[in-house]
Specification:
The chain is an all-alpha fold. The chain has one domain (about 5-420). Helix content is about 85%, strand content about 0%. It has helices spanning about 5-40, 40-65, 65-75, 80-110, 115, 120-125, 130-135, 140-145, 150-170, 175-200, 210-235, 235-245, 245-265, 270-285, 285-315, 315-325, 330-335, 340-355, 360-385, 390-410. Helix 3 (about 65-75) packs across helix 14, helix 11 runs parallel beside helix 19 and helix 14 (about 270-285) runs parallel beside helix 18 (about 340-355). The radius of gyration is 21 Å and the shape is globular.
């Protein structure tokens, strides 16, 4: 029997650990989804989906792309305790500064825009997810290839949140309590994760220098641009539907989006475990990294295609289970979004496992900017005419464009992900 080398053994262990516990992170929200839709009603559920989508803009602002850029830096510097400690406190300092700026911006919006001022408490409660996201150093756990901590903390927090939702939320008037429980769970997970990181990784406190902060900001800039542009089409769906078509349509879109994110969550353990591994491979051997990426693409493609196809074929019974009744809008929306897990899975291989480790962050950010702007131009008329279904169609079209653009850029630079590079081409 072949003996796995320590690096591959560690990778497989990380994936196994994540799959052993990651189910809690995605099965629980899917189990809670039908309950919340029935108890709160589609309009109140839509309001919460809209508020959570709005809060995600501030999460994106404070993340600044560090979940990718800092992960790569930790993976490459983890042999040096001093370097990792300096990076840790630099990232945390920047995230807190951006959170404070976001908090100020939130209160300006709540005071100036009537649409938000009417439900200002809802948006403030949703914003609690932002400090929770800041405190959770996913990038550190990934870079250290210790992903079991992510699953344990996230799984425990989500299980607790689900139990509290079932215990305390029984009427549509409990919608703010439902949001507080969900946002509070994220904050609790962040606090627990920060304590876990400080306890297990020997992080020394050091006040970040101006040079460290500047370097860290520079490393994350292109990925910040990428993630900001991604928000324009990946997260703006629920937000735009709420603004242009109302809370009911936002509820249809939000429920379909949660179903798809649950399916995408099946791939999260692989992505989280593989990214630092590929970053190390790419730094040492281009051919070894590409060979690994091709295998990853086949595996991830197969794992994501089957559930996507099932949702497409079974959209009507799935909609009946989630909403308790069937409307044309919810079924059509679900069908348009059914293949998104597969399409997004392919783009994750092209972007996270290939373009970033190979140093194509600038090209990636350009693709996302074009996709984000194109999404706005496409989404607005489609949402105005078709509501949530139009948003679903727009997101699918843009994600297909992103896949095609990434493949084209990689091919132009001689990085052949879909097939092995001919031997003569390297001579």
């Amino acid at each position: 029997m072949a003996i796995l080398n320590p690096t591959r053994q560690k990778l497989i262990g990380n994936v196994a650990w994540l799959y052993a516990l990651q189910g809690l992170n995605y099965v629980i929200p899917l189990a809670v989804l039908p309950y919340l839709v029935r108890v709160l009603g589609i309009e109140r559920f839509g309001l919460l989906a809209f508020a959570q989508a709005f809060a995600q803009y501030f999460v994106m602002l404070s993340d600044y792309g560090f979940n990718l850029s800092a992960t790569k830096q930790v993976a490459r510097r983890r042999g040096s305790r001093e370097d990792v400690s300096r990076l840790f406190w630099s990232v945390l300092f920047i995230k807190f500064a951006l959170m404070l700026f976001g908090c100020l911006l939130l209160f300006v919006i709540l005071a100036a825009v009537p649409r938000f001022r009417a439900d200002s408490t809802v948006y403030v409660i949703a914003y609690v997810a932002v400090p929770g996201s800041i405190l959770f150093p996913v990038w550190l756990f990934q870079g250290m290839e210790q992903m079991r901590y992510i699953s344990i903390v996230n799984g425990g927090a989500r299980l607790l949140s689900a139990m509290l939702l079932f215990i305390f939320v029984h009427h549509s008037s409990d919608y703010m309590l439902a949001l507080a429980i969900q946002s509070g769970g994220i904050l609790l997970a962040g606090m627990a994760a920060l304590w876990t990181a400080l306890s297990n990784f020997d992080i020394d406190f050091c006040w970040p220098s101006r040079a460290d902060i500047s370097q860290t900001l520079g490393d994350g800039w292109h990925l910040f641009v990428s993630s900001s542009a991604t928000m324009l089409y990946a997260n703006t769906g629920a937000f735009l539907v709420g603004v242009l078509a109302g809370n009911v349509q936002a509820g249809y879109f939000g429920a379909a989006d949660k179903i798809n994110r649950g399916i995408q969550g099946l791939l999260t353990p692989i992505t989280q475990a593989v990214y630092p591994h590929v970053s190390l491979l790419a730094a040492n051997s281009r051919d070894a990294a590409l060979a690994f990426i091709r295998k990853s693409l086949i595996g991830i493609g197969l794992v994501s295609f089957l559930p996507s196809l099932l949702v497409l074929l079974l959209a009507r019974p799935v909609a009946l289970f989630v909403f308790g009744s069937i409307t044309q809008d919810c079924v059509v929306t679900l069908r348009w979004m059914a293949m998104l897990p597969f399409v997004i899975a392919v783009s994750s291989v092209f972007a996270i496992q290939t373009m970033i480790p190979f140093g194509f962050e600038r090209q990636l950010s350009r693709i996302y900017v074009v996709a984000g702007l194109g999404s706005l131009a496409l989404s607005v008329p489609l949402i105005l005419h078709y509501g949530a279904a139009g948003a679903g169609a727009s997101v699918l079209a843009v994600e297909i464009f992103v896949d095609t653009a990434m493949w084209s850029v990689l091919r132009q630079h001689g990085v052949h992900v879909l097939r092995a590079e001919p031997v003569m081409a390297r001579i």
